[in-house]
Write a structure and sequence with these properties.
232 residues; alpha/beta; 4-stranded parallel beta sheet
């Protein structure tokens, strides 16, 4: 257990992660952060789509989905180990502080929401609440706890451990269940950074991004804690 789990800063967690987690490899796909062979295109079919069909302009990852990071994401998501939401919130803020070029022009930082009744907890919302708390200088357009801009009120089928076609169907249903809260005029022409825990094929982020664009967003970028190695 990290000695700074409660008292550590966003920068401390981010710097520590740089030494202990598997970084995104070089070279990697500029669209989905997947490792690529020099001179060969990314194998992820989503990356070959025009941006208008892909939905998001790019997705960055804090690290690869392996080892300790994979285990702790699972602990938070399925066991309700809330303490890891604090760490992950710091990792996100640390990444944003370290990548000002990717944060330029971002109007909203929102989580890809989990259902309001999800058990054992709404893991994405917990991470985003922690990120808001860690952003003590209010440098980033994060929503305060209890006022998330993107919400999911209806449960849909989960995409974990499904075939690619099943994942696409689940992603469509998930996106259709989302609502932008507040004044929808806020999203018109906006640049949105969409945050999630894990990126695999990109189907879910694709459909959520398309939903946001249909609502009026001009650009949707992605940021995930972990990028799953893509094998097909």
């Amino acid at each position: 257990m990290c000695a700074y789990r409660i008292t550590g800063t966003a920068r401390l967690c981010s710097d520590c992660a740089g030494h202990t987690l598997q970084p995104v490899a070089e070279p990697h796909c500029p669209v989905c952060s997947q490792t690529v062979t020099p001179g060969r295109p990314c194998g992820n079919r989503v990356c070959a789509l025009p941006e208008a069909e892909r939905g998001f302009s790019r997705v960055d990852a804090v690290a690869m989905y392996s080892g300790a990071l994979r285990h702790k994401i699972h602990k938070l998501k399925y066991d309700g180990a809330y303490g890891w939401a604090l760490i992950f919130g710091r990792l996100l803020v640390g990444w944003m502080e370290s990548h000002p070029e990717q944060m330029q022009g971002v109007d909203f930082v929102v989580g890809n929401p989990s259902h309001a009744g999800r058990q054992p907890l709404q893991h994405i919302e917990s991470i985003m609440d922690a990120a808001y708390t860690e952003d003590v200088t209010r440098s980033f357009p994060l929503s305060p706890p209890g006022a998330h801009r993107l919400v999911k009120q209806v449960e849909t089928a989960r995409s974990a451990n499904r075939t690619l076609d099943e994942k696409r169907l689940a992603a469509t249903a998930h996106a259709d269940a989302l609502t932008w809260t507040g004044d929808t005029s806020d999203i018109k022409g906006a640049t949105i950074l969409l945050v999630d825990d894990v990126f695999t094929s990109g189907s879910q982020l694709q459909h959520v991004a398309l939903r946001l664009r249909a609502t009026g967003a001009a650009d949707v970028r992605g940021l995930v804690l972990a990028r799953v190695p893509w094998n097909g």
